[in-house]
Amino acid sequence: MTDYECPYCGGTESSSKDHIFSDFFGGQQTIAACRECNSRFGHEFEGRFINALAPMIVSLAICGLRPKRKVTWKYAFVDLETGIKYDVNSDLFAIAPVQWQVLEEGGRAMTATDSRIVERHVENFKKQGKKISISRLESKSMRPEISFPIHFDDNMKRTAVKMCIGLLHHFGYQQVIHPQTMDYLLNGETGPIPAGIACVSYPALDALREPLSHVIYVQGIKKKKFLYGIVQFFGVLQVYCILNGQYRGEDLSLLGTLNSVNFLESFSETPALNLQLPYGDIPVGDYWTGRCFGNSMCKLKRSSARTC
Ligand SMILES: [Zn+2]
Q1: How far away, in angstroms, is 221 Cα from ligand 1 center?
Q2: Which of 74, 81, 202, 220 has the fewest CB within 10 Å, making it most exposed?
Q3: 70 CA to middle of ligand 1, Å?
Q4: pTM here?
């Protein structure tokens, strides 16, 4: 292919199929991206982000939402009675890896899942001349009470930025992202982070998707020279991405959705939603441009924001 150019690094070699919505979520639509970016992103942040979502995916499975691919939440909970750590997978099996307990007579007990670590414990106790017993801990089936934290970290935010670029690329928009946002995508946190959690509700956007869907929405506003994106995971976690504060392109308003119940995907142009930049941890105002993005931003009175 002669006209191929990687949407992330601009490279022109070794094209590969890169999913807009991760195939892990059940996404099928792909864009052409270079093999190196595709595999690097997978290792660097996408894979880590998806691992971090395992607790949420398992919890949604408990509520009846089965993922396309089986997911295992490592060490989901500890049985306080035995001290055994359990994994829980999205088929709702609580699994304890085989665990061994090395008990020092009249003293400490140590548990391990790895036989080499068990051997090491045994060696240590023996060296100290202590009597020990080794037993295998039996796991039991139970319905655990589980809770989990969600980390709104770089892995999630870089994944969201990448998805916005994927959507733009799908509709033929190339090289519309600010270099600083590209730098963030490619290298992670080296300066201000152009993406942040959006703890606000966007009813106009939510109306365009089924419940629990994954969403990518990108809007370019010619008059404001502003290009932004909003990504929702499971319709719950929401990331706002500043894609370009010096946008020179035409008005555009693009939507991608992936239903996490039936895994149907759709990509379309949609009426402009003009969604507000949320409060939160995204630098606003003259972050790149020396301009404000509207009165609501100035109310934030951030040190970086000039007045309108
Ligand atoms: Zn590339």
Answers
A1: 27
A2: 81
A3: 29
A4: 0.77
